[in-house]
Amino acid sequence: MQSKCVVVLSGGMDSCVATALAISQGYDVALLHLNYGQRTEKRELKAFNDIADYYKIDKKLVVDIGYLKDIGGSSLTDASRAVETGGVEKGKIPSTYVPFRNGNILSIAVSWSEVLGASAIFIGAVEEDSSGYPDCRELFYTKFNELLKAGLPDNESIQIATPLIHKSKADIVRLGVELNAPLHLTWSCYQADDEACGVCDSCRLRLRGFEQAGIKDPILYRPLSPL
Amino acid sequence: MQSKCVVVLSGGMDSCVATALAISQGYDVALLHLNYGQRTEKRELKAFNDIADYYKIDKKLVVDIGYLKDIGGSSLTDASRAVETGGVEKGKIPSTYVPFRNGNILSIAVSWSEVLGASAIFIGAVEEDSSGYPDCRELFYTKFNELLKAGLPDNESIQIATPLIHKSKADIVRLGVELNAPLHLTWSCYQADDEACGVCDSCRLRLRGFEQAGIKDPILYRPLSPL
Known about the structure:
Two copies of one chain form a homodimer.
Chain A: E1 4-8, H1 13-24, E2 28-35, H2 41-54, E3 60-64, H3 67-71, H4 101-116, E4 120-123, H5 138-151, E5 159-161, H6 169-178, H7 201-213
């Protein structure tokens, strides 16, 4: 029987490539998406559904964890705080960090995986070439896997897979193109939902990745973006 | 300045005693409650609010994680499945297990703790004298603390405290009485919300604890309960 996995699919480039990888490895894929009151919630949900349709995957779960917006502490969920647009600063956690967001997301993925009988959870976390969020570090996922060994029923086994964790954004672009991932359907911008702003950390990292890979980013950006 | 902590307060006896302990240790306490579509959701929420009022704690957060009911896999959230009433069977995980529930709950507690600046999370998990849920084992909490060391910003530190993990239910009853915890306001029954059933695992464990402590349980039980 085909092994099942859950892919955490935000609708961004990285999670789209993680989906493509899980499919290429022969998994029977179920897709999980989270709405958490982030600025581009609706646009990301559209990207999620577009990518699911592209792959004809109907095992989908969309979970509302708007409590993360109520809890606050992030410019990504709080419109009164500004999102950084000056580029990633090494060693500094940007205001867009959502406290322990990935812990919340993985826990939901684990609950669903237990019920589905999935043996793996794919997440497109990137450590080096990223915004510097603590819950995107490889060690976090290593420890989460140890937690799962301790906290699941003894006859169950679920492994978190982070196939992109040490890749550069350029590597991810190249891998996506190689796997025919629908990068044109993805959305990465933190603050706009019609044309990407081109200046938030997420846009900058993405644009630089495409530039370094020598490939044109297929999505629309606002005119006069600095890259 | 007084250290802050978050207490996970379901409204049951164990979490009530965990609250009493956190207060007795001098913490500035914030209370977290989760609705997850369990059978006695409303009754547990009442117990939570009653206990908060008793202690005059106004820093409260109630989070709806009804997605756990949607995900399913448990008789506690699925009315079409029966709750065990024959007593705990050693080595067997009962149908009331909610897949990875405590991972979900702790993750929310961590997100809130980060924003509050709390340094500890109290949870009334009990390992031995319990229903045998894998996410109530001490090792699960040890590993969760390691996860927090890896997954939080480097300048933050949050510790999960499980002060009841190795206590018997009788010990917990005695400790609650000693600390003047409002055990009369707590609710433990898995299936009834007016008078406790007396026969579900949770009622049985509770009643045996009171019996062994030689103290009368102050809440109401249905007539003819077998203990």
